[in-house]
Amino acid sequence: MPMRGGRLPADPDGPVADTDRSVGNREAGEAGSRGPVPGARRVLGTRTGRGAAALLAGALPALAFPAPSLWWLAYVALVPWLLLIRSADTGRRAALDGWLGGTGFVLAAHHWLMPSLHVFIVVLAALLGLLWAPWGLLVSRLLGGAPSAGRSVAAVAVVPSGWLMIELVRSWEGLGGPWGLLGASQWEFAPALRTASVGGVWLVSLLVVAVNTAVAQLVGKAAQRTAALICLVVCALGVGAIWTWAPRPGSAGTTTRVAVVQPGVIEGPGSIERRFARSEELTRTLAGRGVGLVVWGESSVGVDLTRSPGISARLTALSREVGADVLVNMDARRTDGPDRTGIFKSAVLVGPDGPTGDRYDKMRLVPFGEYVPARALLGWATSVGKAAGEDRQRGEAPVVMDLSDGGGPRIGPLVCFETAFPDMSRHLVREGAQVLVAQSSTSTFQHSWAPAQHASLGALRAAESGRPMVHATLTGVSAVYGPEGEPVGTPLGTDASGAAVYDVPLARGTTLYVRLGAWPVYGALAVLAGFLAAAGAGALRTSAPGRRGPRAHTAGGSPARPGR
Questions:
Q1: In three state form, how does the secondary structure of 451-483 look?
Q2: What is the DSSP letter of 492?
Q3: Torsion angle, CA of 18/90/50/176, rounded to 10 degrees?
Q4: What is the pLDDT of residue 73?
Q5: pTM for the complete prediction?
Q6: What is the pLDDT of residues 9-36, one digit of tens each?
Q7: What domains can be seen in the chain, in order of their start residue?
Q8: Strand partners, 472
Q9: How far apart are CA 125 and CA 179, in angstroms?
């Protein structure tokens, strides 16, 4: 049978060998990398059908995140996308499948932004989706055609490493931050949380994509299936070893009682003042309950306390009445020097003697929600959605706060979007924080997946750092997690208005992630560098004078005809 379409490999057994990937070979069954069933093949044979399939395949992993929270789906959700890219007959088609799939993933994972950004979210998704185009080429190179066992094993390391680079790049604040990292979908799965304590959410993402890559290769020839099974066993043994031997924070043998105040949805004229009054009312119900810290949500105070003595006095009296410090969040215009005037979002601790002097100004802002990147160029976004009309001001450094009585745990505050960044909570723990506290508001997205997704990030940050996390919001979901990411008590949902008390377990010691940081990212970089070096060396060997790859023959012994 004549071969069509591809160059012949210089080293058929090498992990980076080029292979024949023509549709003709797949239809004849030579490659062992089985194509779609006939009916699906007809649909995928059209540009529109294949493009739609890529969009849908890329969107599928979003179901693993809250609110659906089908966490187990993450381990196979990439398989249809991988198989589609594997069937591409050209590198250009593989890159296009990667781009369209990435666009579908971003749209599905961030669809709740539609009320704020409208059609602009489609533009952003298409731009971010371009990050997956090189990944599509990588998948095609490693999984396309008839990979040897060696190349199949290499794929389980290289394909996840390529995915992790995408997550790293889009984790930059200006590109939207690390929301929707694939590893974050595993916030309910104890072995994954344990894995996060070793290498952060980065290691969890690597393992999830590695499992998907191995499963995709089960649809292949015997050598691929054997290699895939071996890789799956290695992944399982690795997680088992982490579960058994990785150091974990020890119990401090004590708890601290923390209350979360969630006023609920309050809209209309005077909503800021009415929300403050409702928060006061709920906080008073905590008197006599032994609470050491009361946490209010983001933007719970709409004035600068240094210029509003009346509001400051009310909070001070509230702290005395309850017998606990109150961590509020100011969303107000403030002047910090001649060049620092504007709106800040600040966590402020108020004790029985007034504000303690500890204040944390939010450092990482939400693109378009709190500032418009390159406003001179993209300022038009404010006319088609709810983008920020004025850029918020940034804080300059993280802050670890001491409670006013000096006897409670040290707290590390984060504001809203910042809980998506694993490095921020890690830094606070390294600076001595014993309890991580997040103040948030997702009321704009009240009836979407956003509140549950945001609350779930607290479990990852707690597991990574080995410190409990309190996630307090204005309108839900408010939740508390223990030092291993386990839920503490009952969350306050988006339909609740109330105050909840939690006995938060404290921990001592540190996790490997706190000690070593994002080492899986550097490991992925090394894997990709090794792959590219091997690919370059293979290309040089093939192009060297007098060096040609072995001639391929058909089943009848005739030399293969060159591809068109």
A1: HHHHHHHHHHHHHHHCCCEEEEECCCCEEEECC
A2: B
A3: 80
A4: 98
A5: 0.87
A6: 333 334 333 433 433 333 333 333 445 5
A7: 23-247+518-543 (no CATH), 251-363+398-510 (3.60.110.10), 367-393 (no CATH)
A8: 439
A9: 13
